[in-house]
């Protein structure tokens, strides 16, 4: 604690049998800035009263009411400061639990911190509003890492995506009508298609359309409209009208987050609407999921995880997560280990 420094001294007059005489000078503190006093206002008040009233006898403690009032005022100010500190500490601990376990439940946190579930739900709402978690029923998940643009994601982890693409080819058969949704892994799948494979490919993504143009066996249908730069595809009203007339055999769906309870999720509202429309009109749905998307969520749900027919996962995908999808009746294909 930074102690108050002595600025000057004043004399207090004591009455005695011989009249009035000054008593030894009592130091009057020069107040240090409150922000510099460790422990805040209440500690300062206690220090002031303890060190500058005990020097006086019962007749001389004329300053005690002032000290008492100061202590009350400082206590009133300190209470919200302490509450804010507890709030910040609790929310930091919630983030730590989220990083450690990949999921938090409001009921468990309420018991751990000895607060109500309403308090925890408020904490989770505030953390979600700050972009630090994604709220789901009963708790929260980490925010999905796929919040960048398609153009930025194309160059990330190409070996892992190529391995997923090779595994996904097993689900694509000659003569199919296949919808290729926006996504960097889906672009890798389009690039990996054999040139002599005959099928009808549909996409709303210019980058994927360009990759399919040089494959002579593929009939290409491009869904049009305004391109959303973040998604890298056409997802608006025109695109939704165009896709309504098609019934793909297979929808290769892109997702930003994948969780057995939260489902497949994305960051953009219109993107979720478009993806859902295609997925529900397709005979089967395939999603290729990188490890960093498992157990994460984005704001907008596309479909429930159980609506997927198959998932293509990395060779070292988290076993517990994969087991949940298998128990839900979803076919799982593991990619080979990516080349270093």
Question: What does this protein structure show overall?
Answer:
By secondary structure, the protein is an alpha/beta fold. 39% of the residues lie in helices and 22% in strands. It is built from 11 helices and 19 strands. The strands form 6 sheets. Strands 10-9-8-13-16-18-19 form a 7-stranded parallel beta sheet, sandwiched between helices. It has a 3-stranded antiparallel beta sheet with strand order 5-7-6. The protein has a 3-stranded antiparallel beta sheet with strand order 14-15-17. A hairpin with a 3-residue loop joins strand 14 (257-259) and strand 15 (263-266). Helix 1 (41-53) runs antiparallel to helix 2. The longest helix has 38 residues, at 64-101. The radius of gyration is 33 Å and the shape is elongated. The two termini are 56 Å apart.
Write the layout of secondary structure elements.
Blueprint: E1 5-10, E2 13-16, E3 19-22, E4 26-30, H1 41-53, H2 64-101, E5 104-105, H3 106-113, H4 117-129, E6 134-136, E7 139-141, H5 150-153, H6 158-168, E8 177-180, H7 184-192, E9 199-203, H8 206-213, E10 218-222, E11 227-228, E12 233-234, H9 237-243, E13 250-253, E14 257-259, E15 263-266, H10 269-281, E16 284-289, E17 300-303, E18 310-313, H11 319-327, E19 331-334
Parallel strand pairs: 8-9, 8-13, 9-10, 13-16, 16-18, 18-19
Antiparallel strand pairs: 1-4, 2-3, 5-7, 6-7, 11-12, 14-15, 15-17
List keywords for this structure.
340 residues; alpha/beta; seven-stranded parallel sheet; three-stranded antiparallel sheet; 11 helices; elongated; disordered N terminus
């Amino acid at each position: 604690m930074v102690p108050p420094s002595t600025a000057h001294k004043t004399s207090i007059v004591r009455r005695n049998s011989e009249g009035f005489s000054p008593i030894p000078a009592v130091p009057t503190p020069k107040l240090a800035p409150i922000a510099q006093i460790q422990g805040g206002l209440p500690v300062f008040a206690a220090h002031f009263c303890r060190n500058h009233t005990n020097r006086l006898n019962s007749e001389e403690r004329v300053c005690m009411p002032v000290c008492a009032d100061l202590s009350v005022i400082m206590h009133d100010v300190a209470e919200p400061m302490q509450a804010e500190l507890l709030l910040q500490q609790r929310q930091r601990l919630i983030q730590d639990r989220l990083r450690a376990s990949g999921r938090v439940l409001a009921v468990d946190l309420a018991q751990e911190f000895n607060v109500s579930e309403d308090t925890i739900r408020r904490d989770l709402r505030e953390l979600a509003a700050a972009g630090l978690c994604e709220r789901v029923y009963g708790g929260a998940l980490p925010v999905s890492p796929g919040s960048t643009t398609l153009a930025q994601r194309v160059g990330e982890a190409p070996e892992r995506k190529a391995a997923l693409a090779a595994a996904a080819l097993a689900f694509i058969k000659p003569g199919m009508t296949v919808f290729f949704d926006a996504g960097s892994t889906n672009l890798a799948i389009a690039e990996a298609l054999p040139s002599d494979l005959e099928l009808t490919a549909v996409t709303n993504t210019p980058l994927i359309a360009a990759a399919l143009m040089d494959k002579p066996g593929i009939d290409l249908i491009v869904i049009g409209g305004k391109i959303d730069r973040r998604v890298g595809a056409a997802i608006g009203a025109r695109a939704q009208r165009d896709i309504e007339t098609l019934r793909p055999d297979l929808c290769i769906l892109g997702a930003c987050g994948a969780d057995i309870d939260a489902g497949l999720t994305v960051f953009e509202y219109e993107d979720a609407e478009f993806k859902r429309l295609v997925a529900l009109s397709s005979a089967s749905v395939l999603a290729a999921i990188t490890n960093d998307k498992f157990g994460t969520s984005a704001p907008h749900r596309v479909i429930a995880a159980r609506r997927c027919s198959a998932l293509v996962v990395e060779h070292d995908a988290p076993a517990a997560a994969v087991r949940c999808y298998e128990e839900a009746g979803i076919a799982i294909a593991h990619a080979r280990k990516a080349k270093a």
